[in-house]
Each structure stands twice: as C-alpha cells, then as structure tokens.
Amino acid sequence: MQYMLLINSEEGGWDKLTKAEQEQGMAAYTAYGQALKAAGAYVGADRLQPSSTASTVRVKDGKTKVLNGPYAESKEQLAGYYLIEAKDIDAAIAWAAKCPGAHHGVVEVRPVWPM
After folding, report:
1. CA gyration radius for the chain?
2. Which has fewest Cβ within 10 Å: 8, 77, 103, 107?
C-alpha cells in the first residue's frame, strides 16, 4: 500500500541554519532517500517552494477565485513529501520516524486512496 509522508516545518527555518547545518541536513535527507530506495519503499519525493508562492483555487457559484500566497497562517507549512510503499500503517509510521523532517517539524502519514 502507498502512504504519503507530508513534512511540515517552520517556514524560513532552513534559512536560519548555518551553511554547515544545511549541509548536514541535506546529507541526512540524502541518506534517508537512499535507505528508502534500498528497501524498495521509495516511490517519489520532492521539496515544495515557500507558501508565499502558492495559489489557492476555489470555484463558488461557477466563478473561479484565486488566492495568492499561503491559505492558512501557521508557523508550520507543508515543506515537502515522500510517497512510499509500505506493508501497513505501522511500517509507514516507522519510516516517518526515520525521516529527518520528524526531528525539526512534524511528518503526517496518510494512506493513499487509489483512484
């Protein structure tokens, strides 16, 4: 079954790190991705641009309404994701606990509902 690991962290937190801390963070994410691939659990992953680059779209009464910038004011924003294959929710949670994002934010684990 596929699970989405949604990484939420303090927006702008990366920019507050020193260059050495950023390099250490990138190394941790690289190692995590390699571990997922070695286990056959990796399906896909990406980082997301800041919430200030987002557009929120709604259609109400047949009219499209677009809100530029973050929809919700929150300290933590969706920063990236991993799409993984795991045998069950417990295995997905174990992978989420190993994600570097769980150490500086929160990782939400959601089962994918196939279409």
Report:
1. 16
2. 103
Tokens of 114: 């196939």
> What is the reported pLDDT for 68?
85
In tens, the pLDDT along 48-62 reads 998 888 888 999 999
DSSP-assigned letters across all residues of 35-86: HHHHTT-EEEEEE---GGG-EEEEEETTEEEEEES-SS--SEEEEEEEEEE-
How far is Cα 89 from Cα 69, in angstroms, rounded to an integer?
A: 33
Query: Pairing between strand 76-85 and 2-10?
Result: antiparallel
Average pLDDT estimate for 85-103: 97
**DSSP code, position 104:** T
